[in-house]
TrEMBL record:
Family of the protein in this entry: Belongs to the nucleoporin Nup84/Nup107 family.
Major localization class: nucleus
Protein name from the UniProt record: Nuclear pore complex protein
Regions annotated as coiled coil: 114-143
Species of provenance: Dictyostelium discoideum
Composition skew (Low complexity), residue ranges: 672-689
């Protein structure tokens, strides 16, 4: 052993200073253990034994003397027996118990061989498990390297895969596997952010802060998935297995009782799980380049000193044993203080990581064997020959003294943690996790001590310490109590503020195992952390709890917290134009009507037909009701409840909260609003016998132009044309939209609507209709009636266009014959005279005066022939177009237009909204049709037929007179009267 380890430079053997925490004096002679041997130079690195693992206390062991004599009883074994391969092991409760049961003697070589084979098999299984874990992790390592895919897409695809049914799926494992997957995804994202060298702007302050915040959020998300997986793997799977396991404690010792408690006491087990979770976060311990702590600077100065006076003046210790500073109340050299502080900080890091064995081993590596023994004084004995630390309480009281009197904050914290003195431990804690761990570590150790106290070693000769050192620990019984302290910690405002972090609040509710309160709190937590990442995490958290068999549905209302959170994330996907991801998350809404409403409103502004069909296919893939969605899209658009003239989704207002959800709810009443149409009336001067103005008697096609909004409504019907069973609904919605268009005189829009529909829609719809035959036939009949009406309207206007282009004689007459034209206009101003006497008028107009030259005569004859040809062609078109229009009109007035097959006369009950709409439209359109029919009959010269219109109006089969107003009937009678007079003339 080097000279630096020769601590006792002064003669302190006779010192009885009560301030010595670890006396260098040998223990009393009654102690049956030998603590007189200090390690020499050859044994500095031989600290490879394990505490309490001796099969025989008299074997060839070298025991390190702990400078605090009591701590020598916590043995660190330097085993010289080559047959015993002891090394530091890990145990669940902090001491170093070997995995082997050394109290059992090996009786024969066969047992040894079997044990070796089993050991080899276990090692092989461990290697296989390690390889599987590495392969499993590798599949996520590069998942975020593809920059063409967003994080939302990666999470979506992963979730889609996890939700697919798999063979031999254990329902208990589904949520655990889900949490494990997203735990690995979070870690992969953290690695991706750290490894991303493409972001050259990282070192700019704003981007750096943004990246650091993103890293922090993903780290918190990872931590939350970790505790979720650990706790519910125990709660849902392991706990029931442990409860069924039988444990023999007929002759209990502390280790057996401990194992029993860990299996049977679920509260203690969950506390242990929480500790492991908190310690994993700090599992990486950074070692210093020069770890040895020899107090070498102090030693050098002591060697150079020549007198005690000089030492006193320097105010430095004169001895180098561990108790020298406290005994002499003097410091060591400042450089040594820095080294020791750095060393103690590393020791604390080992303890924070839950590695007491590693901390002890680290102490031996740097030459502080005595401190290694102090760290493992928490041992419990296993059997008659494995004593452990029978002086546990005395050890604990010494730790308490150090935690109160040490000058180094980390040393105070180390021994404060070991003895449960939170006042000494908390000052060096940095964050919420550290505080929670300290409280929980002390709570766990104290709880375990109380449980194991009745089974302590029979060698224990010390007095009991009834109360724990920390005053507040007696008031803490559960982790929930600790979390309440952190939330109300007025002395540490930063920790109190961290308790309000949404991730910590979620972790707290996970620990409390209260998912109903967790769900209720999520909407408010979204207000605190408005990032899409947190919103997505909240959605996945909801899904995790739903997948548990113990999950009970809380609420299916549209504004329940679950739906609010999911709806909010759907909004993010829509606003970021990640349309292909919307269907899956919409399917997570637990209310079907809300699913239909949300997805249909999303589809409203989708224009491209291929994209429309793709999004409906995705909706069907994830179990959404595509038929209801398609119908809802059409209803939403045609009702005008959403502005469809732009492609922006801002008007959807998916804010995710109840008030917004209520605003976005689809109206439950009929989607179409029929405006009472002002009938297009044909005005006729009843005091004259002139023919009515044709432009007033024909249906006005362009009284209202087709707008972009009209085209969007027309285009919306295509949503109902992707499935054959929905074609009948497409016809139904077309009927409703046609009612609106015609009521508003949008005849052009009505014509465009009919053109946009598939040609064979009626035939296929009738074959594939899910409705009953009566409803199907009535829907198709109304559609056919509309087709006939629009066709009649087109033909009427075609005849009108042709008639308005009647050739004028004045355009063909030379200047010399204008007097003839004036004569015609003055004497034949009647419409009918012009039609019936066209040949006579032509002869009169082109009549020669007798003084024309030969050339003028030839020109007049040419003009007359040209006029006669043009007029003849026009007259032929006039008759043909007129007859076609008459046929179309009669196809309407000889049926119960727009009325159901069982109600041809159109008598509807007062509460029949649809019937009321039909009645209004019939009152608007039918009188105009009769007037148009009269005008065309007169225009083509069928005066006799025009005089018979009253017979059709008065027909009792259809009772057309019932939809005429009194004024309209008077106008028709006046027109018929004029025709009758003409017939008499």
């Amino acid at each position: 052993m080097s000279e630096n380890f020769k601590w006792n430079l002064g003669n302190n053997l006779n010192s009885n200073n009560n301030d010595d925490f670890f006396s260098t004096q040998p223990f009393n002679n009654n102690n049956k253990f030998d603590f007189s041997i200090l390690p020499d130079d050859n044994n500095e690195d031989e600290f490879s034994g394990i505490v309490n693992n001796n099969n025989n206390m008299n074997n060839n062991n070298t025991l390190v003397k702990g400078d605090g004599g009591i701590f020598g009883n916590t043995q660190i074994n330097f085993n010289n027996n080559n047959n015993n391969n002891n090394q530091f092991g890990n145990s669940l409760f902090g001491n170093t118990i070997n995995n082997n049961n050394n109290n059992m003697e090996v009786n024969n070589d066969n047992d040894n061989n079997n044990n070796e084979q089993e050991f080899e098999m276990d090692n092989q299984q461990l290697q296989n498990n390690q390889m599987e874990m590495e392969e499993d992790e590798n599949q996520f390592n590069n998942i975020f390297n593809d920059k063409s895919r967003t994080d939302d897409t990666i999470y979506h695809n992963t979730l889609e895969y996890e939700l697919q049914p798999k063979l031999n799926d254990d329902p208990h494992l589904i949520p655990i596997e889900l949490s494990d997957t997203f735990l690995k995804l979070s870690q992969a994202k953290i690695n991706s952010i750290n490894d991303d060298e493409s972001n050259k702007l990282f070192y700019m302050q704003n981007n750096r802060k943004q990246k650091e915040q993103q890293l922090k959020n993903y780290q918190m998300e990872k931590d939350t998935w970790s505790i979720l997986k650990k706790l519910y793997e125990y709660r849902d799977i392991q706990r029931s297995i442990d409860q069924k396991e039988k444990i023999d404690i007929s002759q209990p010792n502390q280790v057996q009782v401990y194992n029993y408690l860990i299996k049977k006491d679920h509260k203690l087990r969950e506390n242990l799980i929480l500790l492991e979770w908190l310690e994993e976060m700090s599992s990486q311990v950074e070692l210093n380049d020069n770890d040895a702590v020899f107090w070498e600077y102090t030693l050098i100065k002591l060697k150079k000193s020549n007198s005690i006076t000089m030492l006193t003046n320097n105010q430095m210790v004169s001895e180098l044993d561990p108790d020298a500073m406290s005994r002499q109340n003097k410091p060591i050299d400042k450089d040594d203080e820095k080294n020791q502080s750095r060393f103690l900080k590393t020791v604390w890091s080992f303890l924070r990581a839950g590695d007491r064995v590693g901390a002890a081993e680290y102490c031996t590596n740097v030459g502080q064997f005595w401190r290694a023994q102090t760290l493992i004084g928490l041992n419990y004995y296993q059997g008659e020959h494995s004593i452990g630390n029978p002086y546990f309480n005395l050890w604990k009281s010494n730790c308490l003294n150090i935690s109160k009197n040490s000058n180094d904050q980390y040393e105070r914290a180390i021994y404060g943690l070991l003895c449960g003195n939170l006042e000494a431990t908390l000052p060096i804690q940095k964050n919420w996790y550290d505080y929670f761990w300290c409280y929980l570590r002390v709570l766990y150790d104290e709880s375990l001590y109380r449980e194991l106290k009745p089974y302590r070693s029979p060698l224990s000769i010390e007095e009991d310490i009834d109360s724990p050192p920390s005053t507040c620990i007696s008031q803490i019984n559960t982790p929930k109590d600790i979390l309440e302290i952190l939330k109300n910690n007025t002395s540490q405002i930063e920790i109190k503020n961290q308790s309000e972090n949404p991730y910590h609040q979620i972790q707290e509710l996970i620990i409390a195992d209260d998912y109903s309160i967790l769900f209720n709190s999520l909407p408010n937590l979204l207000l605190k952390n408005k990032t899409p990442e947190f919103n997505r995490f909240a959605v996945l958290l909801i899904l995790f709890f739903r997948k548990r068999e113990q999950y009970e549905l809380i609420s299916t209302s549209e504004d329940c917290p679950e739906n609010i959170v999911i709806n909010e994330y759907v909004q993010h996907l829509i606003n970021s134009q990640q349309y292909e991801l919307v269907a899956l998350y919409t399917s997570l809404l637990n209310n079907e009507s809300l699913q239909v409403d949300v997805y249909s409103r999303f589809l409203v502004n989708i224009i491209d037909p291929n994209q429309r069909q793709q999004l409906l296919v995705l909706a069907e893939k994830f179990g959404l009701n595509t038929q209801e969605i398609a119908q809802s899209v059409v209803k939403t658009i045609t009702s005008g409840s959403i502005n469809t003239t732009s492609n922006s989704f801002e008007n959807l207002e998916f804010t995710g909260f109840a008030t917004t959800i209520n605003k976005n709810k689809q109206p439950k009443n009929k989607s179409t609003t029929t405006t009472k149409a002002s009938t297009t009336e044909t005005t006729t001067n009843t005091n004259t016998t002139t023919t009515p103005n044709l432009t007033n008697t024909i249906i006005n096609q362009d009284s209202s132009i087709t707008t972009q909004d009209d085209l969007v409504k027309i285009n919306s019907i295509q949503w109902l044309c992707f499935e054959k069973q929905l074609l009948i609904k497409a016809i139904l919605q077309s009927n409703l939209l046609l009612r609106d268009f015609i009521s508003l005189n949008k005849y052009g829009a009505a014509s465009e609507l009919l053109k946009s529909l598939p040609k064979d829609i009626v035939m296929i719809a009738k074959q594939q209709s899910p409705l009953n035959e009566s409803d199907t036939n009535n829907i198709i009949k109304e559609f056919r009636d509309w087709e006939n009406y629009i066709t009649a309207n087109i033909r009427i206007n075609l005849w009108l266009q042709n008639y308005s282009n009647q050739p004028k004689i004045s355009n063909y007459l030379p200047q010399s014959l204008n007097n003839n034209n004036n004569y015609i206009n003055n004497n034949n101003n009647s419409f009918n005279n012009i039609i019936n006497n066209s040949i006579i008028n032509s002869s009169i107009a082109f009549r020669l005066r007798g003084n024309e030259s030969y050339a003028e005569k030839l020109d007049i004859e040419r003009r007359k022939k040209e006029y006669d040809d043009v007029y003849g062609q026009w007259n032929q078109n006039n008759i043909n177009f007129g007859k076609e229009a008459i046929v179309s009109i009669r196809s309407i007035i000889k049926t119960g237009w727009l009325c159901p097959l069982e109600n041809q006369i159109g008598l509807f009950s007062e509460d029949d909204q649809s019937g009321h709409e039909v009645t209004l439209i019939r009152k608007k359109c039918i009188p105009s049709l009769f007037k148009s029919l009269y005008t065309i009959l007169v225009g083509i010269g069928s005066i006799q037929k025009s005089s018979q219109l009253c017979n059709q109006i008065a027909n009792e089969r259809f009772r057309w007179y019932s939809i005429f107003s009194k004024k309209e009937l008077q106008e028709i009678l006046q027109l018929v009267r004029e025709s009758s007079i003409k017939l008499l003339n």
